[in-house]
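Q: Hi! Curious about what Heat shock protein 20 looks like structurally. Here's the sequence.
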Amino acid sequence: MLMRTDPFRELDRLTQQFFGSTGTVTRPAAMPMDAYRSGHEYVVQFDLPGVAPESIDLNVERNMLTVKAERHPDYADGADVQVSERPRGVFSRQLFLGEALDADNIKAHYDAGVLTLRIPVAEQAKPRRIAITGGREAKQINA
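A: Let's find out. The predicted structure is below.
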């Protein structure tokens, strides 16, 4: 099971809703995410348009997955910027990976601005059949 943690996301949304956008983004918007289970793995996709693959950093520590990415401006330092609406800076997102997931075997792929993580379900968490004994076998054991 996956759980997301971003304690300031809701506060940012409410602040933007109440005060409106000023055109200056001091804290970049959170990276949008989709997560779903497909068979024996979870698939998590993050939208990171305009982010260079080498600026993406993935870490797992004590079942906490951290995704960090940085998006730099495309214009030169001395440019006279007229409009700046696209979020830039460091983006960060954390997911708690439950004990039922195999954090040692996560696979990551980045293509067309989408980071896709495939997180397998741990072997001990997969459903399995349990043999049932009974009838004559049970009587022989108890005899």
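A: A fun detail: Confidence is low (pLDDT under 50) at residues 22-28.
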